Amino acid sequence: MDRTKEILSFLRNNIGYVSGDDIAHKIGISRTAVWKHINNLERMGYDITAIQGKGYRLTGIPDKLYPWEIEQSLNTRFIGKKIIYRDTIESTNTLAFSLALKGEQEGTCVIAEKQVGGRGRLGRRWVSPKGKNLYMSIILRPEVAPQYVYPVTFVSSLAAWDTIKIVTGKESTLKWPNDVLMRGRKICGTLLELSTEADMVKFVIIGIGFNINMKENELDDEIRQRATSLSIEMKKEYERASVCGVLLTNLEKYYGVFKEKGGQDICRMWEERSGIKGKHMEIIQNDVRYEGIGEGIDTDGALLLNMEGSIIRIISGDVSL
Ligand code: BTN
User: Fold this and answer.
1) pTM of this structure
2) How far does residue 320's CA lie from ligand 1's centre (Å)?
């Protein structure tokens, strides 16, 4: 694979045709070996035009979440430096969790083209059609007690908000606890899972589902009312690998704030960005309905709701704005 990748970057860095001889010489392999690697790239979905007497030219890049494609727009120190890529998987969170149990380092990401058992919050399923969206899970090892870890979920939503702004120029909406919406419909969600030992967090898995190129007709009737994608909103297709690199870069930025300044700063940033203060909202928690005005976010990430003068803390549930 390393040689194939070397040839790919050689082709990427040359706008015109490159002869098989040049590639063979540069990489230090035979011309037959070059030809085999070119075939390999074509099987992976790369378009390579070959003209006798001129050589090879890269003419198309597949819409795949290959780690080396994500790398092109990745600007991080540790998040996404190791990416485990799968075509089809049960759930990226499940694999990331088992790898973290075996000691996998902080920053490693599991990314898949399709999930057959994608999981959402509150035991829901996460629709994960092949090659359309982003399904990824990142292993983090924050050195905090379990009660201080919750704001990591806001790290993910803030990173998604910035990413949407960068790639579309549009401002999305943040909904407690972990939803990112466009036109009132969900575009990105985060599932946080953690393992603890005594009173310390061993690791956190941030599972992010970000709808990119999914179309309205690919959604069930029931979900169509509530979900959207970048492509539905902007009426164009996006390069998923590049959106992914930007998202991971933003994630490291906000995780840095969490580590250096603590969860409180992240809660304040999320609170400001969401405009939650003063918003009328309704929350369903274990079949009980709460209605009131958003008062803000507590230091541990709980939602503070003002119900006719008394402030109540909501720690889980579904919010309607
Ligand atoms: C939510 O309910 O809003 C959370 C959705 C999280 C979905 C992502 S997709 C990648 C990762 N793997 C999963 O099984 N779930 C998360």
Assistant:
1) 0.94
2) 20
